[in-house]
Design goal:
Chain A: WD repeats lie at residues 72-120, 311-351. The complex is a heterodimer of chains A (451) and B (937). Chain A is mainly β and 451 residues long. Helices cover 9% and strands 44% of the residues of chain A. In chain A, the strands form 8 sheets. Chain A has a 4-stranded antiparallel beta sheet with strand order 1-32-31-30. A 4-stranded antiparallel beta sheet of chain A has the order 2-3-4-5, with no helix packed on it. In chain A, strands 6-7-8-9 form a 4-stranded antiparallel beta sheet, with no helix packed on it. Residues 1-11, 257-271 and 350-380 of chain A have low confidence and may be disordered. The chains are: A mainly beta (451), B alpha/beta (937).
């Protein structure tokens, strides 16, 4: 038996060399404005996004130029939740609003066009940890130790009793005016009672508690009109029917190598519990993608099984994943890297990874990624598809908390190193700059096109 | 950047001669006159035998009303520089050529003394005995205590090299004008302050006298006044008068025409009328005033003082020093400007010309030159901007702003300076109009090519000089006919490579010293001027008009003298009428009777020994024959012609007069322009260019050292090519080492290959000891990194390995390089380890020239529309990409990784061009996912 530490080192982290032909991000722009961990990114429109974090400020950026548009100061403590508040079609006020909740027990509504603080609520008993907007009803809900319902004017419509001291960790909307809240190990389903002819009062009623998880629920997302999915700290993934709240499917052996392969006993031994906690989900029509510990798993909804996995996609926990339209999956992790994966039908084994640098020759201290270690493919033999690493983005020096994908402007990542990095497709940017250049030439009247 | 002076210096004229000259001539902007005395076997660096000073210096002298001409200070202030050179004697010489007797006092028709806002005069003179040639810039400062309120001063640039003075006249004049303007502004300020204090004194005195008179009146009520009382009353009256006079003076000095902020050339035109008014000359000054003035002393925190009616003896008073005459801040600035001038014109003429050409060419590349140029250019730009703003501080302005107003450029010979030279010179209104016309003409003519920028540096201008004593000969001799031609007619001696040059010369000539000739040639003393001076103005105007108008006539006039040239002239004028007009205008104006071959503009006649200069392109075809002749030592027909004509003129002053009569203008008007150049017949040695201090400004030394170290690097490291490729393609190169000095040295050396992002900062960090961050790679393209052996250093190396994809790493301690592969052809040319270049500065220039070529490729690539944008809607991105690739390969001849260099430069160009204002905005970090390799020695 080998010592666990060594095993970790030898764990088959897939690496990619410096030659990444499919990686489109060949240009980066570092955005500096925050002075603490940046945890949240939220897209405002097709060219703007807002960032927020532990320093309590919200910064609005231009995703194309990297220009800092606004800095919103109002919170005295770290920001715990941020959400956009879509304006109503009928509403004359077209400005983009966002809601931010902070550990200072306030929620502020900001106007992202002017930077104005529209309104502030500070009557909370506890820190608001999650926010959702029910656009259909034009209300929003805040979840802390209790669940409050607010209207656009920030009037408290109704609230639940105290739910738990740990508070609501996640909140989603489901049909029939219901919401699901993850409180500890439990899922609680609430129904909103909207004003009707008889009563003008709003009310929120607890309908059901679902107790199927063994450990704290870390992630909760809607995956389609039929189901939502939850993931827990011990790696249980449960897919629920969205209408009758029954368990549709359940996968809780992410950590159990026997279900996948038998050869990797050591991995099981060395894996600590947090290595299998499910931090984030993303989904598309066919699959649910789960960030489980350091690995990535693709669960096919029809086949009801994991079709592809990357057990050690990163050096440490994967914090956020997103599916891109082109069968690509992006993941970011505490190890400070962002990786781009492609889901491929497994026909043949992918090429050997390209060797990385020559640092070991130089004695550059500890090499964190073993060069030219062949990835053991056999672990994936059981799965019909594979996740192939097509590129990684190295820039942050600390945990990458979240990222945001812009179709037109590239990728925005935020990190515990206080930085936001804008990753861009160098070729496209070059073309855009040329376009701008010739536009300017034309404006100046210096452009003479030969016939 | 483009040309290498040490190459030029070794060029032998003979070799040049032997060449059949069939290859296309160098474009004129590249040509540098060959060393003129090579044929005589002279060592171009040999010291002038006649010169008693070791290198050029600036002398400021005053014509003191008490002791006569005296030297005040020299720049540099080092006795070693001027050695045994007799400053007193030379002061006498240069002061004696000042025609500017600008008097203040009561003009005949006026009740009060008038200040005369005199313009500076600029002359060139030579002194055979001292072996010295000087550009002399006269100016007058105001002093309440001085006779007529004026103190004549002059600043002289003294060099042993006649050609330097002649050919750099424009530049000298421009730079000295700045200094003079600064000094005068400070002086006006000080003078105004002085007047204010004086007024307070007078006011106080009046009060006291008034009180005394009252007391006397009371004490003495018998109805008659005692003699004492009458005396008091007289005194009071004279004080009253004095107050009014001083108030008037103050008003005058304050009303000194404010310079307009627009194009500098226009300034003088706008300000001219007011100056004309002020230019009335008064003959006498009020004795009371001067008496009063004697007692006046300047002191800070002023309390009014009683002024006694008695005046001290004229010679008892101590005249203010130059420093006292000028506001301190302005004075310091003036000194700074002067030492800047000294710096700027230091060294061999050949070197100066080369660097001027260099700079002029660089200016043309305003889109690309930020990439590899030093910030001197950026500074220039700033300076130019400032110049276009109000160029000189006006008296009313607070001194705190003055640093902006009086920029002290670093290395600066630019269009701006030409303009300001034009501007600083008194120009008649009418003349200015003419000037504007010319400008328009030039614009249309040479729209694609800024004429000033290119051609001015080649300007072989010879300014009129003045001989006033036996030992100061006027420059220009029997020895060389062509020199004569220069001396006689501005047009011929200058090489009007472009109309602008000609024009600006004409202007400055016109304006230099309206009356210097009369003063000098007709009467040695300055005393008699006033009337003439006055009279000269109107006629000068007429003269100008006539010049502007009948330039055609001038051509014919010349043509009549030498028919063969006429054909050419007419051809030329057909071909390029306007430019011809320009030159002929000058000719007509300054030397009507001189037959100046029209081809002259195309040739440099300035040097008798066969200075070669290329003709402007438009003449080239036609003038090829001439050119060949000129290139050779043999006198060409045209030259013969000129040599026939000129000596006669030169030797016969009456003819000079006659010629002026022909032009229907008074002799007085342009005497200055025809100020003679006498060159000392005796000395060929006198002509040897001064070679004392060929070193340029400090940045030059820096470049040299960087070049030397880069050369060393290339020779020492076989992997220099990929390292340089990394720099050129924008991949950050980290130089890792333990020894700070070594790392810094190498970083400095390699920084010559780093393209700049903007004008403002070079992306080079010489020394860092903390771990690098992603932002560092965004900001810096060349980093010197400390290798720390302690555990703390592990973090540094760890981050380095983490960010290895963004960097190339040159490890100085283990002599390894980790970077992408390079297989191009560009860098081997740039950095050939077998190169025969030995000197750092030469190598630097070589690098600069290769990089310039590269920049032009990048420029082409960036600004070809169809390479980046589809020609029509149906074109796909793939098509564009292939078009780009083939353009890079076939049209620009780039192979493999070289394309990446050009692409990177193109991105920088785009960013720079698009940004508003240029240089701002976020630099992006561009990188490629390419494998790196480890190179070892």
């Amino acid at each position: 038996m080998v010592a666990p530490r060594l095993i970790i080192k030898k764990s088959p982290l897939q690496t990619i060399g410096e030659e990444q032909t499919q990686n489109p991000y060949t240009e980066l722009l570092v955005l500096k404005a925050h002075h603490d961990i940046v945890r949240f990114l939220v897209q405002l429109d097709e060219y703007r996004f807002a960032s927020a974090g532990d320093d309590g400020i919200v910064v609005v950026w231009n995703a194309q130029t990297g220009e800092k548009l606004l800095e919103l100061n109002g919170h005295t403590q770290k920001i715990t939740a941020i959400i956009t508040f879509p304006s109503l079609e009928v509403c004359e006020e077209k400005n983009q609003l966002i809601l931010t909740a902070s550990a200072d027990r306030t929620v502020i509504v900001w106007d992202c066009d002017t930077g104005r603080q529209v309104q502030k609520v500070s009557c909370f008993q506890s820190t608001v940890k999650c926010l959702i907007v029910l656009q259909r009803l034009d209300i929003w809900l805040s979840g802390g130790n209790d669940l409050c319902v607010w209207n656009r004017k920030l009037d408290l419509l109704c609230k639940t009793s105290h739910l738990s001291d740990t508070g609501i960790s996640a909140l989603i909307e489901i049909p029939k005016n219901c919401v699901v809240a993850a409180v500890g190990k439990e899922l609680i389903i609430f129904r909103l009672v909207t004003p009707t002819g008889e009563s003008l009062e709003w009310d929120i009623l607890e309908i059901k508690r679902l107790l199927d998880h063994q450990d704290n629920i870390l992630s909760l997302v809607n995956i389609n009109d039929l189901s939502f999915v939850t993931g827990s700290h011990v790696g249980e993934m449960i897919i629920w029917n969205i209408l009758d709240w029954t368990v549709q499917a359940r996968e809780c052996n992410f950590w159990d190598p026997s279900a996948q392969l038998d050869t990797q006993q050591e991995i099981k031994l060395c894996q600590k519990p947090n290595d299998i906690s499910i931090h984030h989900f993303t989904w598309d029509e066919e699959n649910v993608f789960a960030a489980v510990g350091r690995g990535l798993y693709v669960y096919n909804l029809q086949m009801k099984r994991v079709i592809a996995c990357q057990k050690t996609a990163h050096d440490s926990s994967v914090l956020h994943i997103a599916k891109l339209p082109n069968r690509q999956l992006i993941s970011c992790s505490e190890d400070g890297s962002v990786r781009i994966w492609e889901l491929r039908e497994k026909q043949q084994l992918a090429a050997e990874p390209v060797p990385t640098g020559f640092f070991n020759m130089w004695g550059f201290g500890r090499v964190n990624k073993q060069a030219s270690q062949p990835v053991k493919k056999q672990q994936e033999n059981a799965t019909p598809c594979s996740l192939e690493l097509i590129g990684d983005l190295i820039g942050h020096s600390s945990s990458v908390e979240m990222f945001l994908y812009f179709e037109d402007h590239g990728l925005v990542t935020c990190s515990a190193d206080h930085l936001i990095i804008l990753w861009k497709n160098g070729e496209r940017e070059s073309g855009l700059r040329s376009l701008k250049l010739f536009q300017k030439l034309e404006e100046n009247g210096d452009l003479h096109l030969a016939v | 950047m483009i040309s290498a002076p040490d190459v030029v210096a070794f060029t032998k004229e003979e070799e040049y001669e032997e060449e059949p000259y069939n290859e296309p001539a160098l474009p004129e902007e590249y040509s540098v006159p060959l060393f003129p005395f090579a044929s005589q076997g002279a060592n171009p660096w040999s010291k002038l035998s006649g010169a008693k000073f070791s290198r050029d210096f600036i002398l400021i002298s005053e014509f003191s009303e008490q002791v006569g001409p005296q030297p005040l200070l020299t720049i540099p202030n080092d006795t070693k520089v001027f050695g045994t050179f007799d400053l007193n004697y030379f002061s006498l010489r240069i002061m004696s050529v000042d025609y500017q007797a600008s008097f203040v006092g009561h003009p005949p028709g006026s009740a009060y003394p008038k200040l005369n806002f005199v313009e500076d005069s600029k002359v060139v003179l030579g002194d055979s005995k001292e072996g010295a040639f000087a550009y002399v810039h006269h100016l007058t400062l105001y002093d309440l205590e001085a006779r007529g309120f004026v103190r004549p001063f002059c600043m002289a640039y003294i060099s042993a090299d006649q050609h330097k003075i002649m050919q750099q006249f424009q530049e000298l004049s421009a730079e000295f004008s700045k200094a003079s303007e600064c000094l005068k502004t400070g002086n006006r300020k000080a003078f105004a302050g002085e007047l204010e204090k004086k007024l307070k004194d007078l006011d106080y005195t009046r009060t006291v006298l008034h009180t005394e008179t009252e007391i006397q009146k009371k004490a003495n009520d018998k109805g008659f006044y005692s003699s004492q009382a009458i005396e008091k009353a007289n005194e009071l009256a004279s004080v009253e008068k004095s107050i009014i006079e001083h108030q008037d003076l103050l008003k005058q000095i304050r009303s000194y025409p404010h310079r307009k902020s627009k194009g500098s050339a226009l300034c003088s035109a706008e300000t001219e009328p007011t100056r004309d008014q002020a230019d009335q000359v008064a003959t006498t000054s009020n004795p009371d005033e001067s008496a009063d003035a004697d007692l006046y002393a300047c002191r800070p925190a002023y309390t009014p003082k009683l002024i006694k009616a008695k005046s001290a003896k004229c010679f008892d008073k101590k005249l203010k020093t130059l420093e006292e005459l000028c506001d301190t801040e302005y004075f310091t600035q003036t000194l700074a400007q002067l030492s800047h001038i000294e710096h700027m014109f230091r060294g061999d003429l050949c070197y100066l010309l080369t660097s001027q050409i260099d700079r002029a060419l660089l200016k043309q590349q305003h889109i690309t030159n930020f990439l590899f140029e030093d910030f001197v250019e950026g500074d220039d730009r700033m300076v130019e901007k400032q110049e276009s703003a109000p160029p000189k501080p006006s008296p009313g302005r607070p001194p705190s702003r003055s640093p902006e107003e009086c920029p002290i450029p670093q290395v600066f010979i630019s269009v701006g300076s030409y303009k300001s030279s034009v501007e600083s010179v008194p120009i008649k209104m009418e003349q200015e109009l003419g000037d504007e016309e010319y400008k328009e003409v030039e614009v249309t003519e040479l729209s694609s090519f800024d004429p000033q920028e290119n051609l001015d540096c080649l300007d072989m201008d010879m300014k009129g000089s003045v001989s006033s004593g036996e030992s100061i000969e006027v420059l220009g001799t029997e020895k060389s006919t062509s020199v004569l031609s220069k001396s006689d007619s501005q047009a011929s001696l200058t090489v009007p490579l472009s109309p602008q040059v000609v024009r600006s010369k004409a202007v400055s000539h016109r304006t230099i010293s309206e009356d210097s000739i009369e003063v000098l040639s007709t009467c040695p003393s300055e005393a008699l001027i006033p009337d003439d001076f006055k009279a000269s103005y109107p006629s000068a105007i007429n003269e100008e008009e006539s010049y502007a108008d009948d330039s055609e006539g001038a051509i014919h006039f010349q043509a009549s003298i030498s028919p063969p040239e006429l054909a050419e002239a007419e051809e030329g004028s057909l071909e390029n009428t306007l430019s011809q007009t320009d030159s002929s205008c000058c000719i007509g104006k300054e030397s009507d009777s001189l037959r100046v071959p029209l081809s002259t503009p195309a040739h440099t006649l300035s040097d008798p020994d066969g200075v070669v200069s290329s003709p402007p392109q438009r003449y080239r075809q036609k003038d090829q024959g001439f050119h060949v002749d000129f290139a050779g030592e043999n006198a060409s027909p045209s030259r013969d012609n000129s040599s026939e004509g000129f000596p006669a003129f030169e030797l016969d002053p009456s003819r000079l007069l006659a010629s002026r009569d022909v032009s229907k203008t008074s002799l007085d008007n342009y005497s200055d322009t025809t100020s003679n150049m006498s060159s000392i017949a005796s000395t060929s040695s006198d002509r040897t260019p001064s070679s004392a201090h060929p070193t340029g400004p400090s940045s030059e030394r820096h470049k040299k050292r960087a070049g030397q170290n880069a050369l060393k690097f290339i020779r020492q490291y076989p992997f220099a090519h990929p390292a340089i490729y990394s720099l050129l393609s924008g991949r950050t190169l980290v130089v890792l080492g333990e020894d700070e000095a070594i790392v810094r040295k190498l970083v400095t050396a390699l920084s010559i290959f780093v393209p700049n992002h903007s004008r403002h900062a070079k992306p080079v960090k010489h020394w860092v000891s903390s771990p690098l961050h992603i932002t560092d790679f965004q900001k810096w393209k060349l980093i010197g990194l400390q290798r720390v052996t302690s555990p703390a250093g592990a973090g540094t190396l760890h981050t380095l390995s983490r960010y290895s994809r963004y960097t190339s790493i040159l490890d100085l301690d283990s002599k390894t390089l980790r970077c992408p592969l390079y297989r191009g052809a560009l860098v081997p040319r740039l950095a050939d380890h077998r190169t025969h270049i030995k000197r750092g500065s030469t190598y630097y220039l070589h690098v600069q020239s290769v990089l310039t070529q590269l920049c032009s490729k990048a420029f082409l690539y960036t600004f070809c529309h169809h390479l980046h944008l589809p020609a029509h809607d149906r074109e796909t991105e793939e098509l564009l990409a292939s078009r780009r690739a083939s353009f890079l390969k076939l049209n620009l001849g780039l192979v493999n990784e070289d394309t990446k260099v050009v692409q990177y430069l193109a991105e920088l160009l785009k960013l720079h061009y698009v940004q508003e204002p240029p240089g701002t905005g976020h630099p992006t970090l561009r990188f490629d996912y390419v494998p790196s390799f480890l190179y070892k020695i």
